Amino acid sequence: MDAPLSFSALRQQSVYQLLFECNPLPMLVYQPDSSRVLFANAAAASCYGHSVQELVELHFYEIHHAEDWPILQESLKLRPEQRTQNSWRQLDSKGNVIHVELETQDIDLEGKHARIVLIRDVSKRHQSELVRKALADRHKAVVDVSSDAIISTDSEGHIQTFNPGAERVFGYKAADVYGKSCCQLLPERFRAACAPQLAAYARSADGDPRVMGLQLLKGLHADGHEIDLECSMAKVIVGKNQVLISILRDVSERLAADVERQAARTQLSHLTRRLMSQEKDLVKRIARVLHDQLGQTMAAIRLVHDSMAALGNGQTSNELQRLDFQLRSLIDQAIRQARVVLVDLQPPLLEASGLVAALDNEMRMRAMRDKSMDLVFDVAPGLATQRWESSCEYAVFMIAREALENAVRHSGALKLVLSLSGDATGLTLAVQDNGRGIQPGAASKLGHLGMAGIMERAKSIGATLEIGPCDNGGTCVRLHWQAQA
Ligand SMILES: Nc1ncnc2c1ncn2[C@@H]1O[C@H](COP(=O)(O)OP(=O)(O)OP(=O)(O)O)[C@@H](O)[C@H]1O
Ligand SMILES: [Mg+2]
Questions:
Q1: pTM score, two decimals?
Q2: 173, 224, 405, 452 — which has fewest CB within 10 A?
Q3: Residue 110 — left, alpha, or beta (φ > 0 → left; ψ -120 to 50 → alpha)?
Q4: Rounded CA gap, 245 and 151, in Å?
Q5: What is the three-state SS of 191-205?
Q6: pLDDT per residue as tens digits for the range 238-268
Q7: What ligand 1 atom has the least distance to the C-alpha of 467?
Q8: Ligand 1 atom closest to Cα of residue 447
Q9: Which residues have C-beta atoms less than 6 Å from ligand 1?
Q10: For residues 386 and 481, what is the distance between their CA atoms, to the nearest angstrom?
């Protein structure tokens, strides 16, 4: 076994030399006055990519980046306790920049002023700091350009960051709100509840970081006016501290526009309902005039004409007989035309016998006119005598009539099924053909008003309506109406 080294042996110069040369930390000694490197160990040589011999032939400033020379020059003049700079950019043998931290100690070397330098290569740490800083800069840029207010607070709600978006939304400068409670950004009446809510959110289970989801709340602008905000919250741990992040969007204008749009829609639907009921009354009046007055007048003309013909006892010229025949045909034609208009205006049987009877009649009349299509009226049992509100019966009949007319005119179908089901509290009407199907967008063709009428009539009675393809490929118009409770 080797004998232990004695302290006196350690003091021998060769041992100190060994400690310097074999030290795993890069070290060198230079002369501040001349800047000449006097000694360098193997670790320093490997750090700079030079040989030890090459290093000791250099000046200390030669291993520094030229941009650091002015500070180095100043630093060389300073006493050890005055030197503050310890991070430097240096160059290896290939001219690559290495980032180092230097620990220095001034020594007296056989009467000459020298400086021993311990070199720590921190290039990797420097590189990762650069990456971290770039990432942080990118995040900051995203937060800064966001038009949304992004505010971070501690778990008690004290504001820590307030982005330019928040400055715009709330009208405060970030510097004026740092450290203050974010509850101050709400109108007075919401402040008391704000702090406990934040605390509850901060304490809540960590599973979903967006526990508070998206919600609407009121904010208070610096000038005192209230703002509608859409808010989502998240909580994260930064270091050891919990940070609450609120993202707030000013939706005041959007909400105001929504309210306006809703009001316009309500007004429009009131107007439609009024127009529909006026239409029904007007149609009734015209029908009454046609039936009771024009119809009666024509019947009277016909009677008078027949009496005149009887008075003549057949003693009239051929020309008069021809005119007489023509007049009789015209009167008959006028009576027929008035009847057709009457049927169109006032659906037969609807008022007196109800929707089922009127639809049944409509289908029969259609079947007599259009032989090319198989028309089926499928009505649920027990509905034959069922009555619904008169406005509902009228609208549903007119919708069925237009859907029927469309199927005949546009579908090319061979079969059409009109089905009606329901009970006293509601009804479902379906008009299904097996034709070519309705093209997307066809229902809103400019200048074609049938579909628009169907939709308006459905809306006016509060019914839901679907127009689209059937399972068998044709077109299906389906309406569901429910009586108001
Ligand atoms: N059953 C159907 N099958 C195929 N296409 C249809 C059907 N019903 C409607 N369409 C298409 O939808 C379009 C719009 O129908 P809409 O009833 O609004 O107008 P129209 O029937 O052409 O004219 P009108 O104003 O006289 O009703 C039709 O022109 C047609 O192209
Ligand atoms: Mg039509």
A1: 0.52
A2: 224
A3: left
A4: 6
A5: HHHHHHHHHHHHHCC
A6: 888 999 999 999 999 999 999 999 998 888 8
A7: 8
A8: 25
A9: 406-407, 409-411, 433, 435-436, 438, 442-443, 445, 448-451, 475
A10: 14
